[in-house]
Automatic annotation (TrEMBL):
InterPro entries: FliN-like_C, FliN/MopA/SpaO, FliN_T3SS_HrcQb, SpoA-like_sf. Keywords: Cell membrane, Cell projection, Chemotaxis, Cilium, Flagellar rotation, Flagellum, Membrane. Residues 19-90 form the Flagellar motor switch protein FliN-like C-terminal domain. It is a peripheral membrane protein. This is Flagellar motor switch protein FliN. One of its GO terms (cellular component) is bacterial-type flagellum basal body. It is found in: Cell membrane. GO terms for molecular function: cytoskeletal motor activity. GO terms for biological process: bacterial-type flagellum-dependent cell motility; chemotaxis.
Amino acid sequence: MADHPSSPDPGTAANPFVQVPIEITISVGRARPTVKELLHLTQDTVLPLDKRIEDPVELYVGDKLIARGELEEMEGDPQGRLAVRLTEVADLKSDL
């Protein structure tokens, strides 16, 4: 097999696109209310989801699933914000 120069790694600093911010959507589950239930939503309505609290969450860029993880509270954050600890990650270099 002949040697071919390797293509540049998209994760290198030479690639200007690595500095572009992206938005990742974290999906914790889906609700499937009826139209009637949707029309009667109020402030204290509870929507049951198709996931349990211990189920992994899914991370998306657009409609592309890029990872799964577990929700946790950010350690030492005075505002109690949530974070995601990744448990599975797609091969982003070949998939994006």
